[in-house]
User: What shape does this take?
Amino acid sequence: MTTNTILLIILSLIVAVGLSYFQYYYKAKSTLKVNLLLAFLRFLGIFGLLLLLINPLITTNTTVVDKPNLAIVVDNSSSITNLKADNVATELHSKLTSNKDLKEKYNIQSYQFDSEFLPFQKLDFKGTQTNLDGIAKGLKAINRNNSFPTVLISDGNQTSGNDYVYSFDASNKVFPVVLGDTTKVLDLKINQLNVNKYAFLKNKFPVEVFLHYSGTKNITADFQISQGNSVLNKQRVSFSPTKNTAVVNVLLTANKIGTQLYKASLISAEKEINSYNNHKNFAVEIIDQKTNVAIVSSINHPDVAALKRAIESNAQRKVTVFNTKQINQLNDYNVLILYQPRSEFKAIFDSNKLARINTFIITGTHTDFGFLNQQQNNLEFKMTSQKEDYLAGFNSQFNLFALDNIGFENFPPLQNPYGKIKTNGSTSILLSSKIRNMETEAPLLAFGENQGSRSAFLLGENSWKWRLESYIQNESFDKYDVFIDKIVQFLASTNSKKSLVVNHESFYNSGDAIEITAQYFNKNYEFDEKAHLSIALVHSKTKKTTTYDLLKGNNAYKVNLDGLPAGTYNFTVKELNSKSTYSSHFEILDFDIEKQFVNPDLDRLNQLAALTQGKVCFPNQMDALIQSLLVDEDYKTIEKNNISRSPLIDWKWLLVLICSFFAIEWFVRKYNGLL
Assistant: This one.
């Protein structure tokens, strides 16, 4: 508060005293005792008003105690029950969170995890997946820029996500508390099995199997792959304490079309505590042909290689790249991708007028748009020689096929000449174009249908950057590759339009996310947002029927069927108003990944503790862990002085008090007949 402000307050005090004295003593006709009260009320009211006029800044000084955070994270997956450590985990969590000394030093944050990282609710140890990598990401997001220790109560066995050892921040100590018996026991295990999801009739397909042995003596075991009662392949494998892994490669023949179920087994005469992990079921869908895709380009561009990789990520697709002079027989292909067509593409366009193969046209800075206007009538181009960068805008009302927004708005721009693009006929726009967030009212990705032929148009080059950006965002190419595969699937299909379209896999593993999507179209083939879809599931053995409603998303109806037991399910999706139906089946393979472990992963927990300068503990060492957390000088309580300044006019209660003083004065004067 400045000197001038203090002088003004003193002057206000003198003025308030003077006016009160003048009113009730100097000028007063009577000397009633009540005059002292009235003078005091008048003084308070006038002094308050003058203070508001001066409006001094009021400084407040408060002390804030800032405790360091302590994250306590408990494994809620079913592997904890399998290792008979569920009661121990519950007791350890309770002991840590209820410790008075820890609560005095730390702000305790309590969490649980299985496939997801969640605030602590209740431990039931029913999680079907374990993602320790998710803990690191969750804690970083919650405690951003803060230093904090973490107590991780887990067996360390991870079944999904990236390597958690290197995910945690090295500057924040992690203290793993090991759940389960670390005593090594004899165990044979199918550690991993790799096989393609699809194979082609009469072809051989590879199966790669990684075997693991834990024990102290030399043993032999038989590895076999069977289908039903038939053994398709059998071989002997030897293990020892030093040679505890083996890789087996088998070629199987695809003899029958459809989903074929197989069982891999590792059999020995030794007695094991856990024999569940000696077997693994897997399935392969046998199909009779591939979708052949031809990419035709007269220039070299990274877009072509990115498209080829994305399309061939689906084993049902085969891509061949040609220049304009190489391709002859168009009838050998199901889809034509014409990259930046120019006049030398004329022979291909002429041949395709007879072959009527669906096309995917991609334009860019090398495209001859005058030539392209002559060869098709879905889009009309009026382009300039000026280059422009176009960003994408997702159309959630697009209804030709179901597709989620994979982050198109955040993808790098595509480059195309600047100009006007007009859509003709039945053209559907999936992605609209924007120039620096300004809508152009022109498409970026559009689909057309004309007399039974289908076309797709991507109006810009450098889509290879989209695939790279998708990988950066998701640590996988999968989402972008599925996006391209949906385009190819739409173009490869020659089926007539159906009112009810259902998408599902032929088989799933137990514990996987099982989602079935459906689209229902009205008579104008527009997505019907008022449809009422339900799905009836029938287990093939128990004949138990369960019905679910499908919930509407952006451009599809969805149902989540996670948690279903293994087996074959027949199902029917029905639209209740029109009675349209779709029937099919899928298989859930018996595979519980959480039953694969006989010991905690002590080695990786030790690595994690070493990298973060923490320490591995066992349940009988909890008192020592608590004591080390209490004496750790790296995490201290910090006292902060917060100084805040606010103008007096912001004090609303002062105005209320001033009004109260004048009101009381008036009532007292009225009561004593002084008015």
In short: Residues 68-182+599-631 form a domain with the Rossmann fold fold (CATH 3.40.50.410).
